[in-house]
Design a protein that fits this description.
Blueprint (H helix, E strand, L loop, with lengths): L1 H18 L15 H9 L8 E6 L5 E4 L8 E4 L9 E5 L5 E5 L5 E4 L8 E6 L9 E6 L2 E6 L5 E4 L10 E4 L10 E4 L6 E3 L2 E3 L8 E6 L1 E2 L3 E2 L7 H16 L4 E7 H4 E3 L2 E2 L1 H16 L3 E8 L8 H4 L3 H19 L5 E8 L1 E2 L27 E2 L8 E2 L2 E2 L2 H16 L7 E5 L15 E4 L5 H11 L5 E5 L10 H10 L6 E6 L4 H5 L6 H20 L3
Parallel strand pairs: 15-18, 15-30, 18-21, 21-22, 22-27, 23-24, 27-28, 28-29
Antiparallel strand pairs: 1-4, 1-12, 2-3, 4-5, 6-7, 7-11, 8-9, 10-11, 13-14, 16-17, 19-20, 25-26
Length: 532
């Protein structure tokens, strides 16, 4: 099995390296000898760029932009300054064409009035699916031609001018610099650790404010039926809404059985789908915490995985992380890897049953295994004042971390821990601390946070206003605002429903009223919570 895995691993590395090559390109002037090639681009099959955020620069070094977020605003050229109004999100429509929306306004690149006339200036407009808002690409080397589906004319710099704010139009193709563009895919800023803080590339503190994205009302878990285009589109819409709520971080929880078809065999199609999710995040300026090894539904777990010994399971879990970190290595959209949600060591006196890895009350029939045992063999008692169960937890963290570090030397590693004091001891093995806190009141919440504080960043990786426990949506809002300095950020929950959908429920259950109120509060305080 080891040899088979090594072959798969090498194939993965080659495959993902080819997908992840640096997309930064340099300008190149087309020459007259390129004329036939350029004309063949337009007459031939289009080449669609990968979904992502791009700047489109002309050979003169300027890019096309919009000046405001107003619908109907004209497209013009300008010197690139890094602003969002000069950036464009590409979304493949699956028909050989794509829509192109402005990263700031979210309005679509549009031919005004559905015109087929030469020299019509392009505008931005609300996306409606019209052919005048669909574009295909033809390319040669670094140079691209952008062709409108309705008019079959190409995006053109008026008069091939170098003048700032010159208009961008559509015309028939000609073999000159006015008709070709150089797309540059953009990456999110890389976030790193400095002492007890997260910082961006300029050294400015980066405060996290976001949600866990696990379930969607259309498809339960994220990976359920995501091979269907409509489901994948709904996931993309969820990311747009999470950005609307004010998120700059989203935590995923990858289900083990979706990414591994055998102990050492990655599921390549699903890893490719995961890369689409990463693109959704990047397009919406959202970083990702990638939590792995989910086994939320017992019925989904393969028998070969469930029936492993502790050592075999650790090895299979390391293989999982080798596959995932190969695909995501050093990608600035990936904020961190979280090895597992709420791992637990069996500290009892007896071994668990052969089919039970659930840490939810040791109930093998639990509907969801949000927490898991990493050992079924018991580690009771203590030695020299140290709990015996802590030793295998340290070893497990180190083994899985080593698998990641063999592929990705920079992305931080953490573990989402239950809010129990001994778990803070494992911070020494991790790059930062991830605490799950569901507060009952302000005093106990602060006491718990202080108990987890170390010399490393502390993130509240899970929270929610459980009103029946004592802290409702308004109380949690007030607590977060008053105690922002205690942590590097907070990560709540998102269930795929909008504020308006909760608002329109008749009658509205009390839980949903609390959820609606929390999302309103969450959105309102997001700017404050993200400000250092």
């Amino acid at each position: 099995m080891t040899k088979v895995y090594l072959i798969c691993s090498c194939g993965l590395m080659l495959f993902f390296y080819s997908c992840k090559k640096d997309n930064t390109v340099t300008t190149k002037q087309p020459v007259q000898n390129d004329k036939n090639k350029l004309e063949n681009w337009v007459n031939g099959t289009g080449q669609t760029l990968s979904n992502g955020t791009y700047v489109f620069k002309g050979p003169n070094g300027q890019c096309f932009q919009v000046a405001t977020s107003n619908s109907g605003d004209p497209v013009q050229q300008n010197n690139y300054s890094g602003l969002a109004n000069q950036q464009w999100d590409i979304w493949d429509l699956g028909n050989g064409y794509c829509k192109i929306t402005n990263h700031s306004s979210h309005l679509a690149l549009d031919v005004k009035g559905n015109s087929t006339a030469q020299n019509t200036q392009l505008i931005q407009y609300a996306y409606n699916g019209g052919d005048n808002q669909q574009w295909r690409f033809a390319w040669q080397g670094l140079l691209y031609v952008l062709i409108n589906k309705h008019s079959n004319l190409v995006i053109t710099l008026n008069n091939n001018s170098k003048t700032q704010f010159e208009k961008i139009t559509q015309t028939s193709f000609k073999a000159d610099s006015a008709h070709v563009w150089i797309p540059q895919m953009l990456a999110l800023p890389r976030i790193s650790i400095s002492g007890k803080k997260f910082v961006d590339q300029n050294g400015t503190e980066f405060k996290l404010w976001g949600v866990n994205y696990v379930q969607n009302p259309h498809h339960s878990l994220m990976e359920d039926n995501w091979d269907q285009p409509a489901i994948m589109q709904s996931i993309g819409s969820d990311f747009q809404y999470m950005k609307f709520l004010g998120c700059n971080i989203v935590r995923l929880q990858l289900q083990y059985n979706k990414y591994m078809t055998g102990p050492a065999t990655p599921n390549i199609p699903n890893i490719q789908r995961l890369l689409q999710i990463v693109n959704f995040a990047k397009q919406n300026d959202i970083h990702l915490i990638v939590t792995g090894l989910g086994a939320f539904r017992p019925a989904d777990q393969p028998a070969w995985y469930t029936n492993m010994t502790d050592a075999q399971r650790w090895s299979a879990q390391a293989n999982f992380w080798t596959a995932i970190s190969t695909a995501l290595a050093n990608n600035p959209t990936i904020f961190s890897y979280d090895l597992m949600n709420e791992p637990v060591v069996n500290s009892g006196n007896n071994a668990l049953t052969s089919s039970n890895w659930s840490a939810d009350g040791t109930n093998v029939d639990s509907a969801n295994w949000f927490g898991q045992y990493i050992t079924r063999q018991p580690y009771p008692g203590s030695t020299n004042g140290i709990n015996n169960w802590e030793t295998p937890m340290h070893k497990w963290i180190k083994q899985l971390s080593a698998a990641i570090r063999a592929k990705d030397a920079t992305t931080p590693i953490t573990v989402g821990m239950l809010n129990l004091p001994p778990f803070a001891d494992f911070t020494v093995d991790l790059d930062y601390t991830s605490m799950h806190l569901y507060p009952k009141d302000a005093a106990s919440a602060t006491a718990n946070i202080n108990a987890w504080s170390t010399g490393k960043p502390l993130l509240i990786e899970e929270t929610w206003p459980f009103w029946f426990m004592g802290m409702d949506a308004n109380a949690l809002r007030d607590y977060c605002l008053a105690n922002k300095s205690l942590t590097t950020g907070w990560v709540s929950q998102f269930f795929g429903k909008t504020i308006d959908q909760y608002q329109n429920e008749k009658p509205q259950p009390l839980d949903d009223f609390n959820t609606m109120t929390w999302f309103k509060n969450f959105q309102t305080i997001a700017p404050v919570m993200k400000t250092p």
